[in-house]
């Protein structure tokens, strides 16, 4: 079972549909007992960094998420990816989950914000599992971006600045764009994540 974390700020229905379209059992839950039983943890998100972390803290999910990410494949989507980092500067300064070193701040670009629409991926660091997605288009909606070390970058996109589009540290991944809104390419990227981490999370049903 794949578990989508329900903390009141995620586009959970469309994310659930994306994984169901891959043929997997999916559950939306904020129950630690149910999250513990999942092979993979999905953290979606729509909204601001501070509001999301406030919700996670108020619901008592901070420590459970840290415990889960230490032992299970974990992926943050859109705002969920931003929360993986140490600190965010949206609507004030907030601590993030701290799974990947780095900070999240407003995009430094001359282009109009928010960045909305389709953009090409550039696969970094000769990342073989994602090599087939070079120059593929995915759908972005955001005004803030992560700043992190090159070694954590799987893919970037250009919007007058280099945007970390896919990040990874161990079995923790993040996608800044919306794979669930990115057609066959998005579904393919989610499948690649599941396949890459299958041996860690166990057999996905």
Your description of this structure?
The chain has helices at residues 12-21, 32-37, 49-58, 62-69, 79-82, 183-201, and strands at 2-5, 26-29, 40-43, 74-77, 85-88, 94-95, 100-106, 115-120, 122-123, 137-142, 144-147, 153-158, 162-169, 172-175. The protein has 205 residues and is of the alpha/beta class. The protein has a single domain, classed as Class I glutamine amidotransferase (GATase) domain (Rossmann fold). An 8-stranded mixed sheet has the order 2-1-3-4-14-13-12-9. The protein has a 4-stranded mixed sheet with strand order 6-5-7-11, with helices on one face. The protein has a two-stranded antiparallel sheet with strand order 8-10. The model has no long low-confidence stretch (mean pLDDT 94). Pathway: Amino-acid biosynthesis; L-histidine biosynthesis; L-histidine from 5-phospho-alpha-D-ribose 1-diphosphate: step 5/9. It holds the Pfam family GATase. It comes from Gracilibacillus oryzae. InterPro entries: Class_I_gatase-like (IPR029062), GATASE (IPR017926), Imidazole-glycPsynth_HisH (IPR010139). The active site is at 78 (nucleophile), 178, 180.
